[in-house]
Amino acid sequence: MAAVFAFSLIQGWKITDKYNISFSSNEAGGIFKTFKGNIVFDEQNLATSNFDVTIDVASINTGNGLQNKHAKSDEWFDAVKYPVIRYTSKKIEKAGNAYQVTGDLEIRGIKKAFTIPFTFQHNGNGATFNGTFNVNRNDFHIGKPGGDVSDMIKVTVAVPVVKQ
Amino acid sequence: MLKKLLLLGVISGALAGIASLIYQKVYASSLGAGFTNIAKPVGIMLSSVIGCLIAALGYWLLSKVLKGKTEIVFNLLFAILSFVSILGPFAAKLPLDIETPELFPGLTIPMHFFPALAWFTLRPLFITVNAENK
Question: Which domains can be identified in chain A, with CATH numbers?
Fold first, then answer.
């Protein structure tokens, strides 16, 4: 009974359209325009909190038409064969004043365990998740190793949410 | 001859600018992307006029050196430089809130040829082949 009661208190959050999913490296940078998913997060109950979010690969925008086409091609993200990037959490824990989530990151059909540090800030009826982390593109066979674009891609995530 | 060339530069630049603005309107109405925040009308007019004024100065300088062969060399250079300049729109990195950067080259590349086109069209009205030798 207590477990059922605790579960009912877990806060679900709806992603607003003001989110920003951006990436940058020495040569390339841009955003993903389409991001969606389910976020259940309660600072007091991390054990039952979870994220299941996806990014639409075809929504990539580098600001340059040729680069966009290149990024969606089979050499890079292969948007036709692998239309989404998915992150599914397995464990969320406190890390100092912030949090970190460990889960499966799936890009180009390759699923790897991945930990993302993030902060959670309340703002009235809503809140914002912020995180910055690096992804080694070679782990997911994105592009060829080496070359002009550095292997490590910095990803910045800012996701405003409102209570469901 | 320099005065005539500068006048040709200003008028052909203005004509190229007007042609570009008309093209931008047509492009925006047919494809829904005019990029008016990036390719602003004032910028289009100014760059067209400045481009043709530089061409006028170039023509004048070439005429001092090449005499009778100015026309051939200048036309060739103007065409080549116009062609090379299309690398700019292909390489341009637009603000990330622009939804369809793929359509940007289609808008701006033709504009890069309008100054040369306007110059070649109006040049016979301003400069005769005999005049450049004077």
Answer: 13-163 (2.40.128.110)
